[in-house]
Amino acid sequence: MEFAIENQPLLAYQGDGLAVGIFEGEGLTKLAQLDEKLDGQLSEIVSEEQFKGKVGTKVSLRTAPGFPVRKVILVGLGTQEKYNLDGARRAAAVAVRAAQQLKCKTLGFSLPGPDPATLQAAVEGSALAVHEFKKFKSQPTEPAETPTAPPTMTLLGQGAENTIARGQAVAAGTLLARELVSAPANYVTPSYLAEQAQELTTWGLDCQILEQADCAALGMGAYLGVAQGSDLPPKFIHLTYTGAGEITRRLAIVGKGITFDSGGLSIKSAKGMELMKFDMGGAAATLGAARAIAELKPAGVLVHFIVAATENMPSGKAVHPGDILTASNGKTIEVDNTDAEGRLTLADSLVYAEKLEVDAIVDLATLTGACMVALGNDVAGLFSEDPALSKEIEQAAELAGEKVWPMPMDVPYFDSMKSLVADMKNIGGQYGGAITAALFLKQFIIKTPWLHLDIAGPVWSERQHGYINKGATGFGVRTLVNWVLGR
Ligand code: BES
Ligand code: ZN
Ligand code: ZN
C-alpha cells in the first residue's frame, strides 16, 4: 500500500474518499463546514444510522457530482479518554477497509492529534488491515469480480521526515511474521527459515547458521533430541544486528521455531493438528523484528536473534518417552512427554544466548495450551523475575497494541518436575502448565535478566478484529521493535 502525508485542512483534500476520525459523543462540530457544503447530508446520515463514534463503527455517504471527494467516511474512535496509538491503528484499518469496499483508489484520512507517532500508527494499521495471505491461491481464469486494490492513503497532518518509512518497516516486519506462520510446514521447513534469515543479510544483518554437527559440538542434546525424529535437518539460526556508534545495550531475542509440532511419539490428536504449523510463531516474530530493526537502524544497540529450528515428528529415530537428554549447560532432562518439545529447543537456545553476554534476553514461544486456558486467545503470558525488564516489555507491548499479562514464577511448582533418574523432567503436574513450562526454562538461565512470552494464544486469530485478520497475527514483532528502540 502507498502512503503520503500532507499537512492540509480537510476541505482542501481532493480524491476519491475522505475518512475522518470522530470521538464518541464528539458530535459533528468540527465538521460543520463540510456538513454545510454537503447540504446537511452528513448530520442526516449520522442521525439516521445512529452513528455515535463508537470504536469499530463507521458511516459513509456519496457526495454530489463535482464535489472534491466522491465518498465521505466517518470512523468511530471511541471515547477520547481511551483513545491511544492503537486506536489510531484500528481506526485506520476501518477507514481503509471501507474505502476498499467503496472502490476508492485514493483516500484522505484525518485523525485527531495528527503527530508523527499517530500517523506512523495509522500507516501500520492500514498496511496490516489490507494484508491477505494469497501465496497458495491459484489465479482464477475468470475473476468473479474485479479485485479492489487498497487505496493510496494520504494522511492529513504533521509527519516527521521518516514517519511513513518507519510505519512501513514495522508493518513489513509484522507481515513477514504473518506470512511465515501462515505458510504450511511443507514449505516452511527449518531450511526455509534459515534461508529467510540468510536473506535478511541484504538489510545489513550478520547471519550464522549452525548445522546439526555444529550444535552437537556445542552439546545441544536437548534441541537435537527433538530434531532426531525428523527427516529434515535442524538449523540453528543466529542473526546479529549492530547499530551505529558506541554500543550501550546488548540484547538477545529467542524464538521457538518448531516448524511442525505433531507431538512426536506422544502424538497429538488429529483434530486441530494442522494448526501446529504455527509452532514457529516465536521464530517468525524474531525474524520479523530483525527485518524491521535492520531497516530502522537504531544506534548504540546490538541485538542477537536466535532460533533453534526443527520439526517435532514421530519416527523410528524419534526420542522415546523416558529418554534422557543432556542440554548444553550439562543439565539432564527426562523426556516424559515428547510433546513438551519447545522447552527442550529453548533450553539450548537460552544457554547459547546467555553465552553471548547480553544485558537481557527475551524469548517468545507458542509454548503451552495451558497459557491459552489461562489467558484466552488475545493475550500473551509474561513471565519474568526481573521487574525492570518486565516494565520495559509491558510498556513496549502497550504502545504496540499487543496484550501481555504478568504470570507468577514465585511458586513451588518446579517440585512437580523432579525426576527419579535425571536432573528434571520436561513436564510438571496436571495444573499450572504455563508456569511449570516457564520454570523449566528458568533452569537454563544463570544470571542474565530474562523474560519469557508464551504466545500460544495470540499467534493465531479465529476472527478479524481491528487490523488483525483471521489467521496469523504477526504477534510480538511490534513489541520487540519498541523494546529494542527503547520505547
Ligand atoms: N506447541 C504446543 C503448545 C500449544 C498447544 C500451542 C496448543 C498452541 C495450541 C506445545 O509444544 C505443547 O504441545 N505443549 C503441551 C505441553 C504438555 C505436553 C505438558 C501442551 O500444552 O499440551
Ligand atoms: Zn508440543
Ligand atoms: Zn510445540
List keywords for this structure.
elongated; 6-stranded mixed sheet; binds zinc ion; 487 residues; 22% strand; Aminopeptidase; 2 domains; Leucine Aminopeptidase, subunit E, domain 1; alpha/beta; 32% helix; binds ligand BES
Question: In brief, what are we looking at here?
Answer:
The protein is built from 14 helices and 19 strands. It has helices spanning 32-37, 41-48, 85-101, 116-129, 163-182, 190-199, 212-217, 221-227, 281-296, 342-355, 369-375, 387-400, 433-442, 477-484; strands at 3-6, 15-22, 58-62, 69-76, 106-110, 152-156, 206-210, 235-242, 249-261, 301-312, 324-326, 332-334, 360-365, 379-384, 403-406, 424-425, 450-454, 460-461, 471-472.
**Which sequence of strands runs across the widest sheet?**
7-8-10-9-13-17-14-15
Mean pLDDT: 97
Structural class: alpha/beta
Sheet-strand content, in percent, reads: 15-25%
Question: What percentage of residues falls in helices of 4 or more residues?
Answer: 25-40%
Notes on the protein architecture:
The chain has 2 domains: 3-157, Leucine Aminopeptidase, subunit E, domain 1, CATH 3.40.220.10; 170-485, Aminopeptidase (3-Layer(aba) Sandwich), CATH 3.40.630.10. The strands form 4 sheets. It has an 8-stranded mixed β-sheet with strand order 7-8-10-9-13-17-14-15, sandwiched between helices. The two termini are 26 Å apart. By secondary structure, the chain is α/β, with parallel strands linked by helices. The protein has 14 helices and 19 strands. The structure holds ligand BES and zinc ion (2 copies). Ligand BES binds at residues 261, 279, 337, 339-342, 366-370, 372, 427, 433, 456. Ligand BES is lined by residues 261, 279, 337, 339-342, 366-370, 372, 427, 433, 456.
